[in-house]
TrEMBL record:
A GO cellular component entry from the record: cytoplasm
Designated name of the protein: non-specific serine/threonine protein kinase
Keyword Kinase belongs to the record: yes
Pfam families assigned: PK_Tyr_Ser-Thr
GO molecular function: ATP binding; protein serine/threonine kinase activity
Length: 235
């Protein structure tokens, strides 16, 4: 990683993850994640994410615990809560056996509640999937990854819900809908309402309405996730 402008005290050994424009490193002195750009002159996405976190900090709406905690900024990047199990996608990939449905319901509930909070604040996440849900020490999930977040629009709000359905599908099956198709091809299938077969898929009573556009907002999603849990007797 030669040439990358590491913050003071941060080395290659501290890197915990990376995206298209930034690295995430664990600061050993604070036990916080510092997210910083690959190149100091290309900090636009990090700056945008900082603005989203700051906006959520100012919110008058009750804040759920399932939003990744923001701890301010430094001249080098933004400071975020450390989730030691990394993303939910990584966590699920590393499991030897599938996660129990009770745990999947808890994750789905937490993620939906976090996304509902975003929408209440006029923000679309814009990139909902299991790589944007972060797993804490006690195996709860928190929503983060706001580099593609935008002002809320009707289409953007609907897309977040559709993508949430696909995230729950991944939690249950271990793979994305239409595995092997590119992103644009997958979106075209969804626009045509040509959905994957859900006959033997757990949580289809939540996944299908997300895909079909049946929900007006995440309040309905949260209600159905919790109702499904009560039906199964796991909440």
């Amino acid at each position: 990683m030669a040439g990358i402008p590491f913050p003071p005290g941060i080395t290659n050994n501290d890197i915990k993850g990376f995206g298209s424009s930034a690295l995430a490193a664990l600061d050993p002195t604070t036990n916080l994640i510092i997210k910083f750009p690959f190149v100091t002159t290309e900090s636009t996405k990090c700056d945008h994410e900082r603005e989203i976190y700051e906006r959520l900090e100012r919110s008058s709406h009750p804040r759920p615990p399932s939003i990744l905690n923001f701890h301010g900024t430094t001249p080098h990047g933004i400071l975020l809560e450390y989730a030691p199990h990394r993303t939910l996608r990584h966590y699920l990939r590393d499991l030897d056996t599938p996660a129990p449905i009770s745990m999947i319901l808890r994750w789905a509930d937490q993620a939906a509640e976090g996304l509902q909070f975003l929408h209440e604040n006029g923000i679309c996440h814009g990139d909902v999937d299991c790589s944007k849900f972060f797993v804490t020490e006690d195996l709860n999930v928190k929503v983060g990854g706001f580099t593609r977040s935008t002002e809320a629009t009707s289409d953007g709000l609907k897309k977040d819900i559709v993508d949430f359905g696909s995230a729950v599908y991944y939690m249950v099956t271990g793979y994305m809908p239409y595995q092997g198709l590119g992103g644009e091809e997958r979106e075209e299938m969804f626009r045509k309402h040509e959905f994957p077969d859900l006959m033997d898929v757990e949580l289809k009573a939540v996944i299908f309405p997300c895909w079909a556009g049946s929900y007006e907002g995440f309040g309905g999603v949260v209600g159905d996730v919790r109702g499904y849990g009560r039906f199964l007797g796991v909440v």
